[in-house]
Design brief:
Elements lengths: L7 E4 L15 H14 L4 E3 L5 H10 L7 E5 L7 H15 L4 E6 L10 H13 L3 E7 L6 H8 L3 E5 L6 H4 L2 H7 L3 E5 L22 H13 L4 H10 L6 E5 L3 H12 L27
Parallel strand pairs: 1-2, 1-8, 2-3, 3-4, 4-5, 5-6, 6-7, 7-8
Helix pairs in contact: 1-10, 3-4, 5-7
């Protein structure tokens, strides 16, 4: 039987690179521990999209060797021109100390529909042909018409938000249709910035109307003898559409907790009853990726 950890990937957005961790440890020590734990646990994808050059250099210095991860990076803005897109992609890989990316993502669908979008996509296809990356992909939101994008551009990977609270792209069949086209789906924002962990009275203002549904989900999880972390991971990792499930952590302790929860048998819960049908309130554009 395949381990659930084989799907688990690590996002770097919460790495404490500029300040000490919550435990007061130097940022470098915490990030090094995170990467070593991820490597030992055989997490596959390491998503470094959107990191600054300084962060890429720091992570590259701390990376276990030989590199055990499938590295994902993202492009700079299309309007900076395809030559600079290529130059920055090559520089990012040098800073990370790797010769090839597993995937280079276009970070926003809007980049592809501007005047420089087709030139950007053509350059990425050329970089794939040259062996700089194994795959090229697109990072989408539910409101971007992900299936239409997939059919038009034929990326190898589509990175999309989904969680047990925000199931829109699962319920409407979008993610299943994308995988049916032979493309990988990488799920992100599976914790929706910790929303499920917040008491209902601390929910953000734009989610006050959904507080009752959040309370119901928390109650169902407790009655199922589970906890929100295990439930969120169990939902995402059990999705047949997902080739990878990205999680963000700010400490080694958080990653250890995620790995323990992911390795546990998924709770038997009624996922359908937990979904919140409020696409505006749950739009991840308003939330940092979790």
């Amino acid at each position: 039987m395949t381990s659930p950890l084989s799907k688990l990937g690590l996002g770097s957005g919460q790495f404490p690179l500029e300040q000490a961790s919550a435990r007061g440890r130097p940022p470098g020590a915490e990030v090094r521990d995170i990467l070593e734990i991820a490597a030992r646990s055989r997490l596959g994808v390491l998503d470094l999209a959107g990191r600054s050059p300084q962060s890429e250099s720091a992570i590259g210095d701390m990376m276990p060797r030989p590199n055990p991860f499938r590295i994902s990076i993202s492009t700079v803005r299309a309007d900076r021109g395809p030559d600079l897109v290529e130059a920055e992609a090559r520089a990012a890989l040098r800073r990370l100390g790797v010769d090839q990316a597993d995937c280079i993502f276009v970070p926003s669908a809007s980049e592809l529909f501007g005047p420089h979008g087709l030139a950007l996509w053509d350059r990425l296809k050329a970089l794939k042909d040259q062996g700089l990356t194994k795959k090229i992909g697109i990072s989408v939101f539910a409101s971007d018409d992900p299936l239409g994008l997939a059919r038009r551009f034929r990326p190898a990977v589509v990175q999309a938000p989904a969680s047990l609270l925000a199931q829109r792209l699962i319920v409407d069949g979008t993610l299943a249709a994308i995988t049916g086209l032979g493309m990988e789906v990488h799920l992100r924002s599976i914790f929706l910035n910790g929303l499920l962990l917040l008491p209902p009275d601390r929910a953000p203002n734009h989610l006050k109307e959904a507080a009752a549904r959040i309370s119901k989900a928390r109650r169902m999880i407790a009655e199922g003898k589970s906890d929100p972390l295990q439930a969120a991971l169990g939902f995402a990792l059990s999705r047949p559409e997902a080739a990878a499930v990205l999680v963000g952590v700010a400490s080694a302790a958080e990653l250890n907790a995620v790995i323990r929860a992911a390795a546990s048998p998924p709770p038997e819960l009624d996922w359908d009853e937990m979904a919140i049908d409020d696409p505006v309130a749950l739009d991840p554009r308003a939330w940092a990726a979790a």
